[in-house]
Amino acid sequence: MAADKALDGARLLTVGEVARRSGVAVSTLHFYESKGLIQSARSGGNQRRYPGIVLRYIAIIKVAQRTGIPLEEIRETMARFPQDGSKLTPAQWKQLSSQWRENLDERIRKLTRLRDELDSCIGCGCLSLQDCPLRNPDDVLGRDGPGPRILERP
Fold first, then answer.
1. Domain spanning 12-117: CATH 2.40.240.20
2. Which of 2, 50, 92, 136 is least crowded, fewest Cβ atoms below 10 Å from its Cβ?
3. What's the pTM value of the predicted model, to 2 decimals?
């Protein structure tokens, strides 16, 4: 079998081709692979080869990262699906996207609250703003722990 052919006859891509087509640096591809986000096969000359579907996985990773989803969460979610060169089914994509949707909805709620409350007391316990005695009298929020308690509430 030629080193640049997959078992199913589909052409495998070199790391350089994947980097160019995905817009991701070679070092980033190596990093993604070391974190278990993508997988490669090795050619007879021990060079990385990727199935074309890896371009879709990289696109998913990039979009998820842009929305603030941590790499570990991306890895955990994607680990539930095969990376053997087969495409995600519509049902698998729905499962993946609905999990991330919940996460994004929660972030949107927190960011909206941050935007709306940033100019006033955030519950840090400093009691230096005029609003603090009204929203955090006697630093009652300090009993819940350190940091900006108002902004960190669920």
1. no
2. 2
3. 0.68
